[in-house]
Amino acid sequence: MNNLVIVESPTKARTLQKFLGDKYQIEASMGHVRDLPKSDFGVDVSKNFEPKYIIPRDKKKRVNELKKVAGEADTLWLATDPDREGEAIAWHIAQILGDKDSNIHRVVFHEITEEAIKKAFEVPRDINLKLVDAQQARRVLDRLVGYKLSPLLWEKVKRGLSAGRVQSVALRLIVEREKEIAAFKTEEYWIIEVELSPAGPAGSDSFLATLIEKDGKKLEIKNKEEADGHVKNLEKSEYRVSKVTKKEVRRFPYPPFTTSTLQQAAANKLGMSAKKTMMLAQALYEHGLITYMRTDSVNLSVQAIGAVRSYIESFIGKAYLPTVARIFKSKSKNVQEAHEAIRVTDVSRQSSVVRQVSGLNKDHVRLYDLIWKRFVACQMNEAVMDQTTIDVTADSYLLRATGSVVKFDGWLKLYGKEVEEEGDEKKQALPKLLKTQPLNLVQLLPGQHFTEPPPRYNEASLIKKLEELGIGRPSTYAPILSTIQERFYVEKENRKFIPTALGIAVIEFLVKYFSDIIDYSFTARMEDELDEIARGEREWRPTISSFYEPFEKKLEETEKVAKKVKMEVQLAGKKCPQCGKELIIRIGKFGKFLACSGFPDCKHTESLEEKINVKCPDDGGEIIVRHTKRGKTFYGCKNWPVCKFASWTKPKGEDKKIAA
After folding, report:
1. 428, 450, 472: which is the final residue of a domain?
2. Which principal EC class is assigned to this enzyme (predicted)?
3. Confidence band, pLDDT 50/70/90 cuts, at residue 565
4. At 647, phi and psi to the nearest 5?
5. Are 74 and 103 in contact (CB under 8 A)?
6. Is residue 532 domain-shared with residue 596, that is, in the same domain?
């Protein structure tokens, strides 16, 4: 055997095999082959932060198999993913399998297509140690924070806690938003809408206008009494058109997807978590259907633009094709390496074709369709709206009506009735009116409203905020969101994050004693420095050292001065069956449970059934929240083991059985 190719997964291996043929043996490493130990610190601070990598026990068999086939190969090709994580995996494989005489090549491609694979193998390169250093720096930095800070949280807050550098910043955003909501004072206000029609039969071509001014000043109506006074005046007023403004509004398509915008769109449109989105996207990529899914670039290759423009002209219509291709510029200040945006690899392959691909399900197809539409739409002509604004006078009052109609649908043609963006102008079509034209009053519609606090973060808005702050990178958004949920620092209600008492206690402690570590600008600056390491502009070890020295001093100080945090006790509303004292709700490794408030004298515990008010589709029993031995949440029937219904996703009442 002459050529051995190593990739991360069996699916990717099978796809590559189709293009490379029998001259290449392709093996999967099954992810990372070396890592820092779980049971030990794994970083030698005295030796300039030297990482102590080990081969995990569950990877030893696979590593031995790879060593055997590598020994029979003349050339080793490392075809891991085209980012820092993939570069690090390639480096670790080379460290284990290679020697000074080994013929090792690194091949990089951003899509698994025949053309891209052959081109990559024609121009192999060496492993990029700058990218490896950036990945190592992040890994060591996170290990230093987690391994050093977690024991302090055990001692001062609660046993079993762990802290993460970037996860803590995300949690801080959620906690601070919750405090904003708690401090928010609701205020009443009123909006008066008026239904009007051109002079003639009442209701003919009627439209709605909103009261906005009185005596030339902006009108703010604070209560019903004020609203009633204005209504009384408006009932007696004469209405007349004072101004008609028409303009053409162009609505341009969005750029192709980056990792964060894909996760946001999948959350908003498809109800998918960031974690699920990335799992589905990974499968689509490994099947050769989309480009690499971890990217913060909106760049498209010349070939991709040419292909999609040809498709638009042939299958959508020449009127929808711009004269010149659209070029998008990344907003992110730290676009990593020369990646492309996320797009489909073959624009002629629509979702109906993807449904036939073995190993993919309807969720893969839904995500593919989202990516396909965004890619095609980004190279289509803009939509054109005719927007009309009508100002109406009623004695000393000014009312305004705004409406728009689609003149040319442009890229919106792909989406039909789907709403692409919230906050659009009202789509009412206004009648043709002339200045000074009298109007009939059809009805007055006063409405009571209340100011609302800022909304809680959901997955989409939290990712957007993290990206705006410069915190996290394409590979980290999904793990951040998963981690804060798995640690029970937050809960989800109607897809929105609510911090638990535990999460609030952790953040209050960290803000008090480690404000620098979870400062937004500090965390963003660390991300910038990791990017500089990847570009070869900074050395990784001095970067870690400049962080660790003040951090270690702060740890020592806090150990001495910080007092034990008193956690708020949540009563369960029932008595202990053994001693009669109150049962309280606690959070353990596998979620919430009930424990006796008399602990340690009374050690009684019992499971807490978290109901979601959904009946089991199999036997009609109550669906409750359950947890696996590893702490992962799932939903199961209360009548287990008689009823075996279980689901990873939260049932809504109509869900079918997913797993048993």
Report:
1. 450
2. isomerase
3. confident
4. -150, 135
5. yes
6. no
Q: Does 331 share its domain with 420?
A: no
Catalytic residues: 292
**CATH label of the domain that carries residue 344:** 1.10.290.10
Burial classification of residue 225, based on how many CB atoms lie within 10 Å of its CB (0-12 exposed, 13-18 middle, 19 or more buried): exposed
Rounded (10°) CA dihedral 135, 140, 145, 150: 110
Tens-place pLDDT, residues 516-538: 999 999 999 999 999 999 999 99
638, amino acid identity: K
Measured CA distances, 475 to 259, 295, 479 (Å)? 8, 8, 8
Beta bridge partners of 351: none
Q: Do 604 and 619 have their domain in common?
A: no
Residues 387 and 423 in one domain: yes
What does the pLDDT look like over 441-493, one tens digit per residue?
999 999 999 999 999 999 999 999 999 999 988 889 999 999 999 888 999 88
CB of 499 closer than 8 Å to CB of 178 = yes
**86-108 burial, b if ≥16 CB within 10 A, otherwise e?**
bbbbbbbbbebbbeeeeebbbbb
**Where among 421, 450, 479 does a domain terminate?**
450
Query: Is the sign of the CA dihedral 6, 12, 14, 15 positive or negative?
Result: negative
Domain CATH number, residue 394: 2.70.20.10
C-alpha span between 175 and 508 (Å, rounded): 9
Q: Examine the domain organization and report whether 89 and 9 are in the same domain.
A: yes
452 Cβ contact list (under 8 Å, min separation 6): 186
Q: Residue 202 pLDDT more than 60?
A: no
φ/ψ of 437, rounded to 5, equals -65, 130
Number of domains in the chain: 6
Q: Which of 297, 288, 286 is nearest to 330 (CA)?
A: 297
Residue 539 CA from chain centroid, whole number: 31
- Tell me which DSSP letter residue 413 carries: G
**Judgement on whether residues 351 and 372 belong to the same structural domain of the protein:** yes
* Cα distances (angstroms) measured from residue 324 to each of 26, 171, 288, 385: 42, 44, 29, 21
Asked if residue 317 lies in contact with residue 400, where contact means CB atoms within 8 angstroms, the answer is: no
DSSP codes joined into one string, 83-95: SHHHHHHHHHHHH
What radius of gyration do the chain's Cα atoms show? 30
In DSSP notation, 40-84 reads S--EEGGGTSEE--B--GGGHHHHHHHHHHHHT-SEEEE---SSH
Could you tell me if 232 and 336 lie in one domain? no
User: Could you give the 3-state DSSP secondary structure of residue 146?
Assistant: helix
Report how far Cα 419 is from the mean position of its chain's Cα atoms: 19
One domain, residues 7 and 119: yes
C-alpha–C-alpha distance, residues 234 and 240, integer Å: 13
pLDDT band for position 334 (cuts 50, 70, 90): low
Residue 586, domain extent: 569-608
563: helix, strand or coil = coil
